[in-house]
């Protein structure tokens, strides 16, 4: 049994709006002894749950992944953080900052501290963190991981009601780093 084929089936079911069927299919595969447990199948399920904002379920799949000694990667952590960002559970909302930081630190511990993972952590934090907290996580002169246009757009959206002097250092740094100004970054700049 090819885990990539199972991943494709799960993704197709979720894209067709049948997430419950996709999850049932995944659970059936977990009980099969002959299947090779690969990060592709786990990442796919975590990703579809992430897009649905179902953080607690995504976290359970991640825990199952670890129980089966499957190594997570950047995509695993980005998807978990996406689920946290899209989650609407008010009770979980109070824990968002703590969970986001814990997940990011875990990701870095696994060597998965890419800018994509950082951006998803920053996006989750932007739901609950104060502006000084966000600026501490992402100072204008940050270089590791190297910020991209999404990193800047996340923080600039939070700075939109602040004085010019607050967002100017970020603008100067993105120009210095030759970050392309398009898409979400252009929108964020226009709001400032």
Protein described:
The chain is mostly helical. The protein has twelve helices and no strands. The chain has helices at 3-15, 19-31, 39-51, 55-67, 74-86, 90-93, 96-109, 115-126, 131-137, 149-158, 164-176, 183-191. The longest helix has 14 residues, at 96-109. The N and C termini lie far apart (52 Å).
Largest sheet: none
Beta-strand percent range: under 5%
Shape estimate? elongated
Structural class, by secondary structure, is mainly alpha
Rg over C-alpha atoms, rounded to the nearest angstrom: 18 Å
Number of helices: 12
Compose a concise summary of this entry.
Helices cover 70% and strands 0% of the residues. By secondary structure, it is mainly α.
Compile the SSE list and pairings.
Blueprint: H1 3-15, H2 19-31, H3 39-51, H4 55-67, H5 74-86, H6 90-93, H7 96-109, H8 115-126, H9 131-137, H10 149-158, H11 164-176, H12 183-191
Helix pairs in contact: 1-2, 1-3, 2-3, 3-4, 3-5, 4-5, 5-7, 5-8, 7-8, 8-10, 10-12
Question: What descriptors fit this protein?
Answer:
mainly alpha; 192 residues; 12 helices
